[in-house]
Amino acid sequence: MIDQDYFSLAGKKGLILGIANEHSIAYGCARAFKTLGADLAVTYLNEKAKPFVEPCALAVEAGLFLPCDVTQEGQLEGVFETIRERWGRLDFAVHSIAFAPRDDLQGRLVDSSSHGFGVAVDVSAHSFLRMSRLAEPLMTDGGSLFAMTFYGSERVVKTYNLMGPVKAALESAVRYTADELGPKNIRAFAVSPGPLATRAASGLKDFDDLMDEARTKSPLGRLATIDDVGAVTAMLATRTGVMLTGQTIYVDGGYHIKG
């Protein structure tokens, strides 16, 4: 029997990685999780980024506000150690982090450097696996893991370039994580919004053209908002998503079906 608890996250504890400012997808997720009653830990990249993230953390009443640059040894581990000390458990974690050196990102994929490709995979995909490994022992009653991806992982999308194969690696990592952690009732998802005007997207060449194309092709004729993405992500963490795992969930108005 379905009751209101199926749609609640009251008492749940969650980690949000990747808020850059109020336009971030991760912030839309944080707002949705908070609306459903969750307690949140929010991270910021560094001291330069902190003033832009702190108002978001305050708005969602984050109980923990911690620095986390996944390229700095020990910082991600430090976040989880603090969560262990303060909360003793974790119910969900959102990975909304991506990076590639600008020259590699804006050039042809075949011209990308080995270093740039490696950095992009490490930050954008492997850090999801690191997050999942650290979350596993804290998810004693099961949990949900989320990564943000994009349709350019499976189709050639003009301007997406290097991030196409990087996001493909991320989606594959999500599927394998779902399989390996499923016996512990830990579920994993890749959430795939259409193009959104975020800080991360600003690094892509001709991104405005990509948004116009997506808006035109979408059966619903519009782009998703960060709150649309957040609502779906939060829903998956509730009991309504209990029998779902390993999928790429599209929140793009149907853009991905148009090819």
SSE layout and pairing:
Blueprint: E1 13-17, H1 25-35, E2 39-44, H2 50-59, E3 64-67, H3 75-86, E4 92-95, H4 102-106, H5 114-135, E5 143-148, H6 163-181, E6 186-193, H7 207-217, H8 226-237, E7 248-251
Parallel strand pairs: 1-2, 1-4, 2-3, 4-5, 5-6, 6-7
Helix pairs in contact: 1-8, 5-6
Order of SSEs, N→C? EHEHEHEHHEHEHHE
Strand content: 5-15%
**How far apart, in Å, are the first and last alpha carbons?**
39 Å
| Residue share in helix | 25-40%
Largest sheet: spatial strand order: 3-2-1-4-5-6-7
Describe this structure in words.
Helices cover 39% and strands 14% of the residues. The model has no long low-confidence stretch (mean pLDDT 94). The protein is α/β, with parallel strands linked by helices and 259 residues long. The protein is globular. It has a seven-stranded parallel beta sheet, with helices on both faces. β5 (143-148), α6 (163-181) and β6 (186-193) form a beta-alpha-beta unit.
